[in-house]
């Protein structure tokens, strides 16, 4: 019977993740918009359009419509169906294996923090790397909003594949895996720790799940926001094919005179040094470069852009997730 139940953490995790995503997605959209604005290196997003989460929520609703707050919801749901399912299923499966081998619990029955965090880190990193393409689609659609050329899931996927190749779908996979590992390493052990120590006061009830998940969300928001800012900016940038200006009217081949332009929906404006080069250009070459340039051009506080919506979203997201997860466990 134990083997039959092994699949349940995966299903519970997926269902609970999708439920939480629907309930908090508009907050995630405001977070993404805040994180990509103010990039002095990229003139397309240099303007500070939003003063904060509430201002972003209001302006997006007025200027683009309420539906724009849900741009990217379907790749987000698809992401949770894969990422959430694999992450939580793997985490609780690894904990079960660690318990059976005597690694997790000490003689007093207390969980080993480092073993617990290790299980969470592995689960978060692996699941996020697998689900990275859905994350890229979500970010691109959130940034573009409603009524743009890549507003649809299929069209957005096709645009990335045609102009950036398969590698474009795994853009930002490094910081994505790092962020997921950090969140999981903080969030899941903290939740389990709080839940265990609140058991005498509240029992295994909704009040316990609510408080434990809220505390867990604060720690994960503080630890993960800088990585999330870097991840969002890397995912949003496209490879820009610049016109070669030496011979605009020239013809074929790959030599001088070849004019390759970005797709209509590409809004990236390259720096002057890139114009006329004819080469692929990216604003950030990787996670470290993105972090350095962000701090250099916008200050250290830029790494915490979107912190408020991140925490505001993580709180309800975790509350909805863990309450749903716990109720599913009790039902079956």
From TrEMBL:
<feature type="repeat" description="Solcar">
    <location>
        <begin position="111"/>
        <end position="197"/>
    </location>
</feature>
<feature type="compositionally biased region" description="Gly residues">
    <location>
        <begin position="248"/>
        <end position="257"/>
    </location>
</feature>
<feature type="repeat" description="Solcar">
    <location>
        <begin position="8"/>
        <end position="97"/>
    </location>
</feature>
<dbReference type="InterPro" id="IPR002067">
    <property type="entry name" value="MCP"/>
</dbReference>
<keyword id="KW-0812">Transmembrane</keyword>
<feature type="region of interest" description="Disordered">
    <location>
        <begin position="244"/>
        <end position="278"/>
    </location>
</feature>
<protein>
    <recommendedName>
        <fullName>Mitochondrial uncoupling protein Bmcp</fullName>
    </recommendedName>
</protein>
<dbReference type="GO" id="GO:0016020">
    <property type="term" value="C:membrane"/>
</dbReference>
<keyword id="KW-0677">Repeat</keyword>
<dbReference type="Pfam" id="PF00153">
    <property type="entry name" value="Mito_carr"/>
</dbReference>
<keyword id="KW-0472">Membrane</keyword>
<dbReference type="InterPro" id="IPR050391">
    <property type="entry name" value="Mito_Metabolite_Transporter"/>
</dbReference>
<comment type="similarity">
    <text>Belongs to the mitochondrial carrier (TC 2.A.29) family.</text>
</comment>
<keyword id="KW-1133">Transmembrane helix</keyword>
<dbReference type="InterPro" id="IPR018108">
    <property type="entry name" value="MCP_transmembrane"/>
</dbReference>
<feature type="compositionally biased region" description="Pro residues">
    <location>
        <begin position="261"/>
        <end position="273"/>
    </location>
</feature>
<feature type="repeat" description="Solcar">
    <location>
        <begin position="204"/>
        <end position="331"/>
    </location>
</feature>
<dbReference type="InterPro" id="IPR023395">
    <property type="entry name" value="MCP_dom_sf"/>
</dbReference>
<keyword id="KW-0813">Transport</keyword>
């Amino acid at each position: 019977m134990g083997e039959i139940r092994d699949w349940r953490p995966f299903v519970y995790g997926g269902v609970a993740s999708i439920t939480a995503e629907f309930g908090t997605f508009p907050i995630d959209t405001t977070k993404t918009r805040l994180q990509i604005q103010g990039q002095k290196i990229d003139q397309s997003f240099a303007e500070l359009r939003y003063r904060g989460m509430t201002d972003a929520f209001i302006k997006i609703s007025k200027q683009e419509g309420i539906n724009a707050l849900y741009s990217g919801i379907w790749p987000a749901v698809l992401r949770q169906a894969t990422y959430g399912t694999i992450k939580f299923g793997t985490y609780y499966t690894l904990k079960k294996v660690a318990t059976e081998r005597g690694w997790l619990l000490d003689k007093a029955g207390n969980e080993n923090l480092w073993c617990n965090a290790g299980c969470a880190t592995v689960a978060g990193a692996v699941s996020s790397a697998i689900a990275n393409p859905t994350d890229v689609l979500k970010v691109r659609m959130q940034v573009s909003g409603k009524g743009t050329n890549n507003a649809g899931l299929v069209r957005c996927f096709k645009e990335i594949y045609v102009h950036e190749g398969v590698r474009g779908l795994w853009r930002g996979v490094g910081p994505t895996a790092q962020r997921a590992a950090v969140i999981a390493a903080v969030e899941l052990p903290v939740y389990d720790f709080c839940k265990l120590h609140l058991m005498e006061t509240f029992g295994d009830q909704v009040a316990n799940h609510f408080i434990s998940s809220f505390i867990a969300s604060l720690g994960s928001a503080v630890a993960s926001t800088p990585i999330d800012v870097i991840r969002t900016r890397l995912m949003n940038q496209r490879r820009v094919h610049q016109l070669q200006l030496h011979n605009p009217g020239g013809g074929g081949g790959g030599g001088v005179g070849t004019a390759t332009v970005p797709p209509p929906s590409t809004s990236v404006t390259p720096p002057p040094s890139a114009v006329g080069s004819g080469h692929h250009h990216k604003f950030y070459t990787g996670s470290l470069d993105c972090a350095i340039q962000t701090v250099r051009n916008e200050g250290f506080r830029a790494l915490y852009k979107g912190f408020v919506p991140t925490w505001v979203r993580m709180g309800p997201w975790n509350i909805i997730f863990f309450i749903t997860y716990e109720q599913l466990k009790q039902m079956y």
